[in-house]
Design a protein that fits this description.
This is Nucleolar GTP-binding protein 2. GO terms for molecular function: GTP binding. Its main location: nucleus. It is found in: Nucleus, Nucleolus. This protein is an alpha/beta fold. Among the domains are: 66 residues, no CATH class; 166 residues, Rossmann fold (3-Layer(aba) Sandwich), CATH 3.40.50.300; 81 residues, Conserved Hypothetical Protein Ylqf, Chain: A, domain 2 (Orthogonal Bundle), CATH 1.10.1580. The protein is built from 20 helices and 10 strands. The strands form 3 sheets. A 6-stranded mixed beta sheet has the order 6-5-4-7-9-8, sandwiched between helices. The chain has a two-stranded antiparallel ribbon with strand order 1-2. The chain has a two-stranded antiparallel ribbon with strand order 3-10. Helix 18 packs antiparallel against helix 19. The longest helix has 25 residues.
């Protein structure tokens, strides 16, 4: 007798078979024929019914029989033990604990399959969900063609209101909800102040020109959804000069509702084009929602590269069950997604250009054995609060394709301080945007026939200077309630910044001997941000973000008071940090040049 048959017979004798039918014998089963073989042979015999001489069926076949055998349940102790039950008090406590952990951007839920998330997550707006369900069912059961028109199959349309008064009340309620959403969107976009209440009654802003539809096509959004579906971690690249304006709220909402298991990180790129203190305040503000890092993309002198790589390695360790993780880069056009990829790889692997729309399709790049990067084309999420002027000044539209570009110069002048423009173009004395363009045209020699200034060409040049950082500008973060302005001493800043530039110290030193009014004016000028454009790069007195030698951004986890270790189902993720310092070589070279001068 074979070993396998002996083992099978032993399990049958001891009642250890797992099918629950170990003590049931099949007729015809013996040493030579197993029960499976006997049932297989009986299938051929019982394949047809038995009939008498008259042709009537006397015995049904197996597949024709309607007799149901008596059910038999395997006797087991687990049927009489405790089941997986939980009291409402325990469920409420667990729901509260999970809500606290979920609100922390540095807590990651690891094992979701062992948690009753359907009981923990409360469905918001359940009444609206019921209404949406009823509306969907009504549309499916009675289409528009069956309700209206010559082929209508009923005399009266089903309306959920009983009178015109009820319909008017429903319209008022929906209008109030719409007004509330508009106000929230206006506050989120950073354009809440200075807006008139009459703007709500104005028609929706529409991009009439074809150039404003770039980044909103179905092909671009298909590329976006491919990147989001293929990525485990998503890097939303923001412009440090206008983080809220380049933030994709619709993408965040989609990830929050449809893919809460994917991790989202904010990258404040182009931090060298904004003051260090402003970037640090933006990092502190955005870190309360998501892990946030400041970065300066450069192949020769990057900033924040080490912090980002260490953070991605932490996510790779969290998903240690996978061979590799994919990291997708999403965001508005011309925010520097491809530049971030090249910075992480320390070589050019993706095409970059200072114009929007350079990346056409998604691209896979290998960073390490366990980390892959996915570059995505820039998208412009539809937002009715965004005017064509906002899109042009954010750099989402190619300026050379814009018709009548001088109409956007007035809005640009309102966002930039006048002394920055005077310092950039070395002129002063204009009263409006037309005079400003005429002065630049005559100074640079851009004239048409008859000595007329080329306003279109000059306007395009000025807009390109504004978008590419030659003209200093930034949007400061909103002031927090109870926040106090603390003076930063030495290198104690979040980005290793100095509290003031050396010019400010020189101005304060000269204030003791100069006239008080002149000293105050000089101090005010020195406190203003001078920008890091092409003309200011040669100034050794200005300490920019790029001069910090590989110093990285500290994590918001240091500011949080939650020092307790996370539970078994969560894992704490921290943003790595290294203290930044100004390189001695650059300081020495600058001092030598000043001595020669």
């Amino acid at each position: 007798m074979g070993t396998q048959k002996k083992e099978a017979n032993r399990k049958v004798r001891e009642g250890k078979s797992n099918d629950g039918m170990g003590n049931v014998k099949t007729k015809g089963e013996n040493f030579y024929r197993s029960a499976k073989r006997v049932r297989h042979l009986n299938m051929y015999k019982d394949g047809k019914p038995q009939r008498n001489a008259a042709g009537d069926i006397t015995k049904d076949a197996v597949f024709q029989s309607r007799d149901v055998p008596s059910a038999r349940i395997e006797p087991n102790r687990k049927w009489f033990g405790n089941t997986r039950v939980i009291s409402q008090e325990s469920l409420t406590a667990f729901r509260t604990a999970m809500a606290e952990k979920a609100s922390d951007p540095y807590q990651v839920l690891l094992k979701t399959n062992k948690l009753p998330l359907s009981l923990i997550r409360e469905v918001p707006n359940s009444t609206n969900g019921v209404k949406h369900h009823h509306a969907k069912m009504m549309i499916e059961t009675s289409s528009f063609a069956d309700t209206f028109g010559p082929k209508a199959q009923r005399k009266r349309v089903k309306v959920n209101v009983g009178s015109l008064m009820d319909m008017a009340e429903d319209v008022d309620k929906s209008m109030d909800k719409y007004a509330e959403k508009q106000e929230q969107a206006r506050l989120l976009s950073g354009r809440g102040e200075g807006q008139d209440e009459d703007d709500m009654d104005a028609p929706l802003t529409m991009a009439i020109e074809h150039s404003f539809s770039k980044g909103t096509s179905r092909r671009i959004f298909n590329e976006l959804y491919r990147v989001m579906d293929s990525s485990d971690v998503l890097l939303m690249v923001l412009d440090a000069r206008d983080p809220l304006g380049t933030r994709c709220y619709s993408v965040e909402k989609y990830l929050r509702q449809e893919a809460p298991h994917k991790h989202l990180i904010f990258i404040l790129n182009k931090c060298d084009l904004a003051p260090t203190s402003v970037v640090a305040r933006w990092v502190r503000k955005l870190s309360k929602e998501r892990p946030t890092l400041a970065m300066h993309s450069s192949l020769t002198n990057p900033f924040g590269k080490g912090s980002l790589i260490e953070l991605l390695r932490q996510y790779a360790k969290l998903h240690s069950d996978r061979k590799q993780i994919s990291v997708g880069l999403i965001g508005y056009p011309n925010v520097g997604k491809s530049s971030v990829v090249n910075t992480l790889k320390s070589k050019k692997v993706a095409n970059v250009a200072p114009i929007p729309g350079e990346t056409k399709v998604w691209q896979y790049i290998t960073l390490t054995k366990k980390i892959y990067l996915i570059d995505c084309p820039g998208i412009v999420p539809p937002n009715q609060n965004d005017t064509p002027q906002d899109l042009v000044l954010r750099g989402t539209v190619r300026v050379e394709n814009v018709e009548n570009p001088e109409q956007y110069i007035d809005g640009m002048l309102k966002r930039v301080k006048q002394h920055h423009l005077e310092r950039t173009y070395l002129m002063k004395g204009w009263n409006n945007h037309v005079e400003f363009l005429e002065m630049i045209a005559r100074k640079s020699g851009k004239l048409l026939k008859g000595g007329e200034p080329d306003l279109d060409g000059v306007a395009k040049t000025v807009l390109n200077d504004f978008v590419r950082g030659k003209i200093p500008h930034f949007i400061p973060p909103p002031e927090e309630e109870g926040a106090t302005d603390e003076k930063i001493e030495g290198r104690s800043g979040r980005l290793g910044e100095m509290p003031k530039k050396r010019k400010a110290e020189d101005a304060s030193a000269a204030a003791s001997t100069a006239d008080p009014a002149e000293a105050a004016e000089a101090a005010d000028d020195s406190d203003e941000f001078e920008g890091f454009g092409s003309e200011a790069e040669g100034d050794e007195d200005a300490i920019s973000m790029g001069s910090v030698s590989d110093g990285d951004l500290d994590s918001e986890a240091e500011d949080s008071d939650d020092g307790a270790s996370s539970k078994a189902t969560t894992s704490k993720t921290s943003v790595p940090s290294r203290s930044g310092s100004v390189s001695e070589k650059s300081a020495t070279a600058g001092s030598k040049r000043r001595r020669k001068a």
